[in-house]
Amino acid sequence: MDDYLQVNRANWNARVPVHVGSAFYDVEGFKAGRNALRPFELDEVGEVAGRSLVHLQCHFGLDTLSWARAGAEVTGLDFSEAAIEQAGRIAAECGLPARFVTADVYDAARALGETYDIVYTGIGALVWLPDLTRWARTVRELLRPGGFLYVAEFHPFVDVLDDESGTKVTEDYFDRGPHVWEYPHTYTGPEILEHQTTVQFRHGLGEIVSAVAAAGLRVEFLHEHDHTLFRRFGTLVGDGDVYRRPAGEPRTPLMFSLRASLPADGRS
C-alpha cells in the first residue's frame, strides 16, 4: 500500500508505448480526425466551446484532445511522465492547443494552479485511487463556481461477477482492497510489459456518490448504462462500438455516468 503510487506509475509508464502503437487506441485514426469520446459523454457534458476543462488521469491524452476538438480549452494531468510526453507530441502533430502536466491526481490543485469550468474524469480511472473523499475534495478545489464534475466509468458491480457469463457473483462487492494484481499484458494486446504489478481499489457506487456530495457538489444525475466498451464477459454481444447482453436476457448495469456541479455562489 505504501508504494502503490510508484508501482502503478511504473506499470503505466510501461503501457504507454504499447498503447500508442495499438489498434485499440488507433492513434493514426485520431490524427486523421477520429473522436475518441463516446456519444453519451458528448451528449451529457453538452457544449464545451470556449469553456476550460481539465482531464484528470488523462493517460496520453486522446480524450483530452477530443474535447479540444470540440472547442474546449483543455488541460490534461497524469502521473505517468511517459504518457504526458506522448500527449504533448500528439497535440503538436494535430495542431491542437492543450496543456499537459505530470502530477499525481491528489496534487492536482497545487500542480495546476488554476480552476476550471469542467473537471472530467474518464473511463477506468477511479480504481487507481485509494481515497475518494480526498479525490472529491481535489475536484472541488479545481472547480470554478458554477462549474461541474463529469465522470464516465465502468460500473463497480461488474467487478464482482464471473468473467464468462457475468451472471454469478464471485467477488465481495464491499472489499475495497488494496488488490494487488500481476498481469504480463495490458488490455490492448499480447505484448509483455516490463512492469507487471498493479495495485487497485474497489469503490462501490454509494461510496462514489457520497464522496462527491460530501465535497459540496450537487449531483445533477447518476445514469446507469446497459452497455460497455469491450467484451467484458464472454456472453456479451457487440453492437457497433458497444457491447450488451444478448436480446431477451436480463440486463445489469455495465457503466455509469455522473454529473455534479458547484453552485454559482461557491457554497454547498
Automatic annotation (TrEMBL):
It holds the Pfam family Methyltransf_12. It comes from the Bacteria. One of its GO terms (biological process) is methylation. Keywords: Methyltransferase, Transferase. GO terms for molecular function: methyltransferase activity. InterPro entries: Methyltransf_12, SAM-dependent_MTases_sf. Gene3D superfamilies: Vaccinia Virus protein VP39 (3.40.50.150). Residues 55-149 form the Methyltransferase type domain. This is Methyltransferase family protein. It comes from Nonomuraea fuscirosea.
